[in-house]
């Protein structure tokens, strides 16, 4: 009889939702991974549908933005790459030259940019490289293009470019981009705004990490109060 009750208890525990079995803990900084991003000239980075980083220096000097992010797999990464081009002419430096683009990214789990990523140009020019009568063409940015469930199956794959073709500045060489490739759409000079997407099904480095999605919808281990309490009972009247 005791064995029957024990078996029933085990089955009941396995039948309970995961949240009921073991409340998730709050994430720690060592749960995060570092993201290094370099863009010519700037970018907006989304992970799993949420905006996590914006290049704070949109033009010169070129810079590397490094942020800590909480990964959750499968992980959808979306980036808007922006070349600093005049929105009417597609040229830069007071309409005196044609600029170029380029994006490279590496995450601490081993995720890197390469030709597997999808890339869709949104604004391009000067059309046909005509600098005497420069003009651009553009298409509307798709709604929710950064969302997890967005369908990018019709987008072309990104094109890889060499360091020589992009010409990165000093900050690029001061950070870890080993294994990553510079990517853009088909034309690194004339395409000025490009949307990128990829899905990372599992950690490339093979390291299993907690999934903290939906943490704001449950009470984590240690209670619902903010950091610094260390689980202590709050002091004050009525306690």
Any chance you could write out the topology, listing elements then pairs?
Layout: H1 2-15, H2 18-21, E1 33-39, E2 42-47, E3 50-54, E4 64-69, E5 75-82, E6 103-107, E7 118-124, E8 137-138, E9 159-161, H3 163-166, H4 170-173, E10 182-184, E11 191-200
Antiparallel strand pairs: 1-4, 1-6, 2-3, 2-5, 5-11, 7-8, 7-11, 9-10
What can you see in these coordinates?
- Keywords: Signal.
- Residues 1-20 form the signal peptide.
- Residues 221-230 have a biased composition (Gly residues).
- The protein is elongated.
- The model is unreliable at 1-21 and 228-239 (pLDDT under 50).
- It has a single domain (26-205), classed as Jelly Rolls.
- The chain is α+β, with helices and mostly antiparallel strands and 239 residues long.
- 11% of the residues lie in helices and 26% in strands.
Features:
239 residues, alpha+beta, Jelly Rolls, six-stranded antiparallel β-sheet, three-stranded antiparallel β-sheet, 11 strands, disordered N terminus, signal
Share in helix = 10-25%
Largest sheet: 6 strands, antiparallel
Instruction: Give the distance, in angstroms, between the N- and C-terminal Cα atoms.
Output: 45 Å
Question: Can you tell me the CATH class?
Answer: Mainly Beta
The CATH architecture would be Sandwich
H and E string: HHEEEEEEEEEHHEE
Radius of gyration: 23 Å
Computed structural class? alpha+beta
């Amino acid at each position: 009889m005791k064995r029957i009750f024990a078996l029933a208890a085990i089955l009941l525990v396995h039948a309970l939702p995961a949240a009921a079995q073991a409340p998730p803990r709050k994430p720690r900084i060592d749960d995060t991974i570092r993201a290094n991003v370099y863009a010519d000239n700037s970018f907006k980075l989304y992970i799993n549908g949420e905006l996590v980083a914006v290049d704070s220096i949109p033009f010169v000097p070129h810079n590397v933005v490094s942020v800590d992010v909480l990964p959750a797999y499968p992980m959808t990464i979306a980036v808007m790459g922006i070349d600093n081009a005049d929105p009417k002419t597609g040229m830069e430096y007071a309409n005196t030259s044609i600029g170029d683009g380029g994006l490279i990214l590496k995450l601490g789990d081993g995720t890197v940019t390469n030709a597997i990523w999808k890339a869709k140009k949104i604004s391009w020019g000067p059309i046909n490289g005509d600098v005497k009568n420069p003009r651009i063409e553009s298409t509307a940015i798709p709604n929710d293009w950064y969302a997890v469930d967005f369908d990018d199956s019709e987008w072309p794959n990104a094109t890889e470019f060499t360091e020589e073709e992009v010409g990165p500045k000093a900050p690029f060489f001061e950070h870890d981009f080993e294994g990553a490739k510079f990517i853009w759409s088909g034309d690194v000079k004339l395409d000025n705004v490009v949307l990128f997407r990829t899905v990372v099904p599992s950690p490339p480095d093979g390291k299993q990490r907690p999934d903290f999605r939906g943490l704001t919808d449950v009470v984590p281990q240690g209670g619902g109060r903010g950091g610094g309490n260390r689980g202590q009972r709050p002091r004050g009247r009525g306690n």
